[in-house]
Write a structure and sequence with these properties.
With 104 residues, this protein is an alpha+beta fold. The protein has a single domain, classed as Alpha-Beta Complex (Cathepsin B, Chain A), CATH 3.90.70. 25% of the residues lie in helices and 38% in strands. It contains two helices and six strands. Strands 1-6-2-3-4-5 form a six-stranded antiparallel beta sheet, covered by helices on one side. The chain is globular. The chain starts with a strand and ends in a 14-residue tail after the last strand.
C-alpha cells in the first residue's frame, strides 16, 4: 500500500521497470475501483479503467502518462489516502479480475 501523495512518482517508476507483457494494477483501499496498466511496447501502455467509469486508453506514451495518471487518480480515488499497488506479472488484461489476491 502506498500513500496517495507519493503515488504518481512511485507508479511511474514501477511502470518504467515493468517488462513488456506484464501488468500493474492500482486499487482503492476498499478494492472496489481499479486501474490496470499493461505494457505493450517499449514506450507504450494500455490502460484499463474500471471503477466510477469504465474506459480504455490505448498506446499511451510515457510523456502523456503522468498527466493521464493525475486525472485517473483524481477521478477514481477522490477521497482515498492509501492506494493498493499490485504487480500482476505476465497477464491477460481481460482476465485479471479473477486473479488471486489477499482476501479481507
Amino acid at each position: 500500500m502506498i500513500d496517495k501523495n507519493s503515488a504518481i512518482p512511485t507508479i511511474l517508476e514501477r511502470l518504467t521497470k515493468l517488462p513488456q507483457g506484464h501488468c500493474l494494477e492500482i486499487r482503492t483501499y476498499k478494492r472496489n475501483r481499479r486501474v490496470l496498466f499493461h505494457r505493450v511496447a517499449d514506450n507504450a501502455w494500455n490502460i484499463h479503467q474500471d471503477g466510477f467509469t469504465k474506459d480504455f486508453f490505448e498506446n499511451i506514451a510515457l510523456e502523456k502518462l503522468r498527466k493521464l495518471l493525475q486525472g485517473l487518480l483524481r477521478k477514481e480515488f477522490p477521497r482515498s489516502t492509501k492506494i493498493r499497488l499490485y504487480a500482476l506479472g505476465p497477464c491477460d488484461p481481460e482476465d485479471t479480475s479473477t486473479q488471486e489476491r489477499k482476501v479481507l
